[in-house]
Amino acid sequence: MIWQPVANDAAAAASEGGADFRFIGLPPSNTLPKRWLDRAVTADIVGAQALVLGPEPIIGAQRLTLRLEEQHLTLATDGLGPFAVVADAPAQATR
Hints:
This protein is mainly beta. The protein has one domain. The protein is about 5% helix and about 35% strand. The radius of gyration is 14 Å and the shape is flat. It starts with a strand and ends with a strand. The relative contact order is 0.20. The model has no long low-confidence stretch (mean pLDDT about 85).
């Protein structure tokens, strides 16, 4: 399964039915959230357009930064363990 944030602009959000993010690779009968609890939240994935979430036991290393106004939180996995909060990296995020 893949998780992908929707671009942070009104046109992109409108084309996705107002979604903030989407899950790719699930049957249409699965109804998962598509919006943040607070619409001001944004997500930046470092070095990729999307996150790979399994079900494989080993995935590549991945890093995600969540932002809400001046606050931010970076989550990462080395591909073997679960995502965990980590110190910020100097790398640039790509969408």
